[in-house]
């Protein structure tokens, strides 16, 4: 897909989850040059992996494998809520994020929302796109009934998440394979 592709409206896309789950208030506050919506099954072609690579390694796995992962994740309903921010001028993705809803036995069968994989195109940072992604995902988490929404981040991103209304709690432990 070229960088001059025409913007594709939501109703022409195969979306991961219904678009009306995204907060209308966040849509109103979003920068006018961009649009926020659920991930679509063709977003591989709109630069999804290249935006994720702003965050970490996101090698090109090819469209068939990417689509198989999209479908495998969507087969667990009400669990993954990946969203994207798209440039209206280019139809390319400029921001991404996801909230994963974890169901629990504690707190009377409570749920926790895990915000994951937030990234904004380097050229688009500072336009409050990251803030809007976090607000939209937190809203999905809260509407899903989660008693808390949590995430892991580097020390340098703590001020960003504080501006999004999050507070530092406890520590992260990791063991890489
Ligand atoms: N340090 C201090 N303040 C910051 C930082 C920072 N690193 N980043 C953003 N802010 C502030 C902004 O100045 C702004 O403040 P203001 O309201 O006073 O103007 C506020 O936070 C909101 O900033 P946005 O414009 O919404 O931030 P942006 O769109 O640039 O996105 C993000 C921030 C997502 C961290 C972006 O810089 C990015 O993609 N970084 C690389 C990838 C990354 O680190 N992702 C997060 C990983 S953690 C996770 O995925 C759970």
UniProtKB/TrEMBL annotation:
User: N-acetyltransferase domain: from which residue to which, for each copy?
Assistant: 34-177
Does the keyword Membrane feature in the UniProt annotation? yes
Alphabetized UniProt keyword annotations: Acyltransferase, Endoplasmic reticulum, Membrane, Transferase
Instruction: Give an example GO molecular function.
Output: glucosamine 6-phosphate N-acetyltransferase activity
**Which GO annotations describe the biological process of this protein?**
UDP-N-acetylglucosamine biosynthetic process
Catalytic activity of the protein:
D-glucosamine 6-phosphate + acetyl-CoA = N-acetyl-D-glucosamine 6-phosphate + CoA + H(+)
Pfam families annotated for this entry?
Acetyltransf_1 (PF00583)
Q: So which domain of life are we looking at? A: Eukaryota
In the record, the note on similarity to other proteins reads: Belongs to the acetyltransferase family. GNA1 subfamily.
- UniProt cross-references to PANTHER family, sorted A to Z: GLUCOSAMINE 6-PHOSPHATE N-ACETYLTRANSFERASE
- Indicate the quaternary assembly: Homodimer.
What is this protein identified as? Glucosamine 6-phosphate N-acetyltransferase
Origin organism is Collybiopsis luxurians FD-317 M1
């Amino acid at each position: 897909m070229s960088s001059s592709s025409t913007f594709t409206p939501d109703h022409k896309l195969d979306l991961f989850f219904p678009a009306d789950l995204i907060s209308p208030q966040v849509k109103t506050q979003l920068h006018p040059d961009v649009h926020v919506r659920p991930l679509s099954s063709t977003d591989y072609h709109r630069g999804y992996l290249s935006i994720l690579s702003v965050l970490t390694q996101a090698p090109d796995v090819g469209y068939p494998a990417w689509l198989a992962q999209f479908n495998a994740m969507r087969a667990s309903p009400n669990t993954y809520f990946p969203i994207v921010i798209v440039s209206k001028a280019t139809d390319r993705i400029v921001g991404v994020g996801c909230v994963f809803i974890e169901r629990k036995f504690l707190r009377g069968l409570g749920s926790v929302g895990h915000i994951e994989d937030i990234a904004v195109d380097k050229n688009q940072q500072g336009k409050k796109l990251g803030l809007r992604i976090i607000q939209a995902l937190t809203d999905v988490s809260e509407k899903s009934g989660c008693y808390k929404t949590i995430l892991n981040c580097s020390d340098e991103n703590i001020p960003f998440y504080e501006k999004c209304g999050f507070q530092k709690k406890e520590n992260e432990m990791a063991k890489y394979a």
